[in-house]
Write a structure and sequence with these properties.
Structural class: mainly alpha
Order of helices and strands: H
Number of strands: 0
Shape: rod-shaped
Helix content: over 70%
Strand content: under 5%
Number of helices: 1
């Protein structure tokens, strides 16, 4: 697995975590 692939996966994971947090933090 190359460095670019790792960055893409990390970016995708961050976006998913961000979306999940927004959903869970709804009052």
């Amino acid at each position: 697995m190359g460095g670019e692939t790792g960055v893409i996966i990390a970016k995708g994971t961050a976006e998913v975590n961000f979306t999940v947090r927004l959903t869970w933090n709804r009052p």
